[in-house]
Design goal:
With 425 residues, this protein is an alpha/beta fold. It folds into three domains: 117 residues, no CATH class; 28 residues, no CATH class; 205 residues, Rossmann fold. The protein has 18 helices and eleven strands. Strands 4, 5, 6, 7, 8, 9, 10 and 11 form an eight-stranded mixed beta sheet that branches. It has a three-stranded antiparallel beta sheet with strand order 2-1-3, with helices on one face. Helix 1 packs across helix 2, helix 3 packs across helix 5 and helix 13 packs across helix 14. The chain is globular.
């Protein structure tokens, strides 16, 4: 495809997302079904451009003095992808494939974009205005910088599966991808984010992935699983297991000792868990489906560790899913808080005396994090909050209350919150 066709295609996909509220993947799929001529490089280019526009939607509009999708695409290509104004003019003005010639106002805005120093925090941080007060509670005057880091491209993080291999062998297998240890955890590897118009490396395609040597998992998610502490020989319940990423991380830490139970209120999310567990060499996993009556009845009061990866707004994963930040509403946030209160209440019933509950969100909002833990502790005096980690590599990310808070700016990970709640013996 020519530059003009790619630019026009990105605008078509963005319009589908904005006007029909389609997720990025579905909008790209719909476009691709009508564009069989597009090659893999074209699709990677268009997808990357769409995501970069969504990551910085507000700041792009501010700098251009124009909040249209077209202005955002032009600004992304010029300011973030380093296209010259001449190349943009050629692409937009392509008589067959272009979206229309550059206007004088567009040329002027591209040549002299507005200074971001004068923009409000929500513009500089690329987030909705209604979240400003919440973010100020946590990050104060740093909120724009913290959120701007959540608008950058994310790397591909991998967790080395110690049930099958070790970091040295896994790193050698990933030589083609130039993987590097990112720090914080010994079994983590990282492939840098690709250049603007490039595809990310398909690590799932190499034989060692099929053999279960590693899993794609953000470093923050790996840290959250590690906050469960010593789980060898324990009875562990992953109460909101979803696709099973943290289940597998916990199972690897257990070294196939004890027993780990994976449950999710949506049975469809568990469909791949057994297959993924088999590939990873997990032998101590039981999947409990909600399709059975009372699937967890026999576990009440018997778990040494209950791990809760709570349903949340996903604000901490905006780097990877930038469309979701513009869809989040106060009503949705309130619903997530109610879900979180319920899952904490449910989880508490499975913890045995002297056991612990690990509460995790991929959110940076206090309403889903500290506020939910405070509300739980007020109603459950048998639980107390303990430090979420004693690892010297991670203690610098502890909050004043002893919880873990990770962000791209502070830890180079997605945004995560972790609280460890211990039940009295």
């Amino acid at each position: 495809m020519r530059d003009g066709g790619r630019l026009t295609a990105a605008l078509e996909v963005l319009t589908e997302i904005e006007t029909r509220h389609k997720p990025v993947r579905l909008a790209m799929k719909n476009w691709g079904e009508g564009a069989r001529y597009a090659g893999s490089k074209d699709r990677a280019f268009i997808s990357g451009l769409v995501l970069d526009v969504l990551r910085c939607r507000r700041s792009l509009g501010w700098r251009m003095g124009d909040e249209s999708l077209r202005a955002a695409v032009l600004a992304t290509l010029h300011l973030h992808w380093d296209w010259s104004i001449e190349r943009l003019a050629d692409a937009a003005g392509d008589e067959i494939h272009g979206h229309g010639p550059l206007t004088d106002a567009e040329r002027q805005a591209l040549a002299a974009p507005r200074d971001m120093a004068d923009a409000p925090d929500a513009i500089r941080g690329d987030y909705p205005d209604w979240l400003d007060a919440s973010l100020a509670r946590i990050f104060g005057d740093d909120r724009a910088a913290e959120m701007a880091a959540l608008a950058e491209r994310a790397p591909v993080d991998l967790r080395v599966n110690t049930l099958k291999t070790d970091p040295v062998r896994a790193l050698k297998a990933l030589t083609t991808f130039d993987a590097q240890p990112p720090g914080l955890l010994p079994n983590a590897l990282r492939v840098a984010a690709p250049a603007a118009a490039d595809r990310s490396g398909a690590v799932e395609a190499i034989p060692q992935f099929s053999k279960g040597w590693f899993e794609v998992q953000d470093l923050g998610s790996q840290v959250a699983a590690a906050a469960a502490g010593d789980v060898k020989g324990q009875q562990v319940l992953d109460l909101c297991a979803g696709g099973g990423g943290k289940t597998l991380a916990l199972a690897a830490a257990m070294g196939n000792t004890g027993q780990i139970y994976a449950y999710d209120s949506d049975a469809r999310r568990l469909t791949d868990t057994i297959r993924r567990g088999d590939r990873a060499g997990v032998r101590n996993l039981q999947v409990r489906t909600p399709l059975n009556p009372d699937p967890l009845k026999d576990l009440v009061g018997k778990m040494g560790v209950v791990f809760i990866d709570a349903p949340c707004s996903g604000t901490g994963s905006w780097r990877r899913h930038p469309d979701t930040k513009w869809k989040l509403t106060p009503d949705t946030l309130a619903k997530r808080q109610a879900d979180q209160d319920q899952v904490l209440k449910d989880g508490a019933g499975f913890v045995k005396a002297g056991g612990r509950m690990i509460y995790v969100t991929c959110s940076v909002l206090p309403e889903e994090d500290e506020d939910r833990v405070a509300a739980f502790l007020a109603d459950h005096p048998e639980f107390t909050r303990g430090p979420a980690t004693a690892d010297p590599e991670l203690t610098k990310f502890l909050t004043a209350e002893g919880d873990l808070r990770l962000t791209p700016r502070s830890s180079g990970t997605d945004g995560f919150y972790v609280a460890v709640l211990a039940k009295a013996p």
